[in-house]
Amino acid sequence: MNKDLRNAVIAGNWKMNKTPAETTALINEMKPLVADADCKVVLCVPFVDIAAAVEAAKGSNIEIGAENVHFKASGAYTGEISADMLVASGVKYVVIGHSERRQYFGETDQTVNLRTLAAVNAGLTAIVCVGETLEQRELGYTETLLKYQTKMALTNLTKEQLKNIIIAYEPVWAIGTGVTATAEQADEGNGYVREAIAEVYGKDVAETVTIQYGGSMNPKNADELVAKVNVDGGLIGGASLKAEDFAVIVKAASK
Ligand code: 13P
Questions:
Q1: Atom number, ligand 1, closest to the C-alpha of residue 218
Q2: CA–CA dist 197, 215 (Å, integer)
Q3: 224 or 176, greater pLDDT
Q4: Average pLDDT of the chain, as a whole number
Q5: Fewer Cβ atoms within 10 Å of its own Cβ: the N or the C terminal residue of the chain?
């Protein structure tokens, strides 16, 4: 295991929060606080906030991401946004297959795979989310499920394309609940994801893939989580809406 082989990435996922004006204000507040980060800093924002976010982040070390992308290049898909549209708007990253999308919007392992292919083919870095529910964990399916979700999401991706893939292990029971996975559980879950990648692409490739943990990561628990060998940063919900909290997490990943 060698953590030096991969980038630590702290990404905020703002979910359905913030107007464009609030986006500008929050990024302006964050910029000086994360300026000396020794990890990648990304903010994934609602579509309507992208223009404001890209503008506010100009000249800083903050990169902007979206929270979803459609898998078709263009056409009659009312309400959807293509990967090329995101690229043209200055977006570099996109969250795909978040559990909220799987739970509320009919996202499946197949559509996650199609979106991932579309994103990577357009030059975006995909932050692909996987994670088990509490029921699945209690039934003993965590490893099987994480490996299945990971392999399904990466179907038809080449070794070369994995350079533009980040996987976020987000146990569904830890999202927005205040219940964080222990550092050991996070490391174990991320380890299953890395094993799944190794089973398909080989161990050397798997060692280079950034695997984040997400689920109630906050300024208090970030240090312990990101210190784990398999945890290469985090995908942060609630705490990414507060500049100071987010900055503390960025600092933890910069050590
Ligand atoms: P919270 O940090 O609010 O638990 O959300 C995690 C998450 O879902 C990030 O994508």
A1: 2
A2: 22
A3: 224
A4: 97
A5: N
User: Is residue 170 annotated as a catalytic residue, yes or no?
Assistant: yes
Residue 117 has pLDDT above 80, yes or no: yes
Q: What is the distance between the alpha carbons of residues 30 and 164, in angstroms, rounded to a whole number?
A: 25
Under the banding of pLDDT at 50, 70 and 90, the label for residue 27 is very high
Give CATH for domain 9-253.
3.20.20.70
User: Which pair of structure tokens corresponds to residue 104?
Assistant: 């509320």
Q: Is 107 a catalytic residue?
A: no
Is residue 192's pLDDT more than 90?
yes
226 and 220 in contact (C-beta within 8 Å)? Answer: no
Which residue lies with its CA nearest to atom 7 of ligand 1?
237
pLDDT tens column, 76-92? 999 999 999 999 999 99
Predicted confidence at residue 1, as pLDDT, reads 62
Q: CA angle 84-65-169, nearest 5°?
A: 115
pLDDT mean over 168-185: 94
| Ligand 1: centre distance to CA 234 (Å) | 9
